[in-house]
Specification:
The protein has two domains: 59 residues; 134 residues, Roll (Nuclear Transport Factor 2, Chain: A). It has five helices and six strands; from the N terminus they run ααβαααβββββ. The longest helix has 29 residues. Helix content is 33%, strand content 24%. With 272 residues, the chain is of the alpha+beta class. β3 and β4 form a beta hairpin. α1 packs antiparallel against α2.
Amino acid sequence: MGSRGSRTWSAPAPTRTSPYGAAPMERSIAPRYGMPGQSAPRYGNAPMMGQSRHPFLTGFMGGMLGAGVFGLLSGHGFLGGVHGLFGFVGLLLQIFLAVIVIRWLFALFTRNRNGGTGSAGAFPVGAGNSNGRTAPSTLQIGAQDYQAFQTLLLNIQAAWSQQNIPALQGMATPEMVSYFNQQLGALASRGERNVVSDVRFLQGDLAEAWTENGYDYATVAIRYSLIDLTTDMTGRVVAGSSTEPVVVTELWTFVRPSSGGAWLLSAIQQAR
């Protein structure tokens, strides 16, 4: 659950900690590009698939060639009704003239579309587009970042056990806090409580890190052990054990403003 920017619906890269990747995202507020009525963001001036031809130019060229072929077959080609060889020569002249006109019109449309100067590729892919998006770029993650991720792992687990929503709000995105709140509410509605303790970080490594739209993202694979116990209001154990730890491998995604600030948890995925 959660969001990973433009990579929400794509699989994180495999790592030593999670060699088989992560389970697909199930709950997210991020738009799912590729579904009916939605399309992927378009960066720079790169044309989308199937949009490289101008519809007017395509129709004009097809009409010219179609008229020439029809005239040749019917005996009324470009040379005004002359048959045989002259009809074929007429078709060739029509094609030659059509190519000249097409090149001229293409240059005219290109100049108009780019404000009268430059070419269609004046801006490199990833420089940005009209809606303010920027293409993702790689991000360097250092030792302090890894320490922050490990600290967030421990503190978020502690806040969950204490059902401390204000504390979670300082460590996770509003989307993730809403999911935590819903899960805690579901437990309370059943008269149950989940408590985790003795959380120990075992192993972790970076799956991917990038920057987009003014935010830094980092997805890390984390393996940790913990005591995971669910009881009812009388203290009776419903699930888990108070003595036997379980080992969990998950991929956690963190986000922060590129201008600076603390990392926040923005997504959790189970390892495959």
